[in-house]
Amino acid sequence: MQLQVANCYKPLIDKLKRDFGGTIQRHLDRYNRHARPSWRWCLSEQAACRFAKKLLPYLFIKKRQARLLLQLGLLKKGNGSQRLTNHQIRQRLEIARECKRLNKRGRV
Known about the structure:
Blueprint: E1 3-7, H1 10-20, E2 23-27, E3 38-43, H2 45-55, H3 63-74, H4 86-103
Antiparallel strand pairs: 1-3, 2-3
Helix pairs in contact: 2-3, 3-4
């Protein structure tokens, strides 16, 4: 899982990268040639958890997603030959489904 912020205002995206790290991707809408280019700032799971923890007290609309991200970060991860248990896999999938549901446009 990762955290992404998209915006057409590049200085905002640059500031996020400067202050918190991560990567920036440029996005052009190939279906609408009149659309303004936008930028995506991305953080990997560990950095996203640190960022979400700092932001949590200030969030309102995305607070549930931030809590789910932190919950995901607490789950044991497999490394090398250590595999996730079936229970851990189910937990991670449930968190991902809930985030996807919350991120849908319109009423949830």
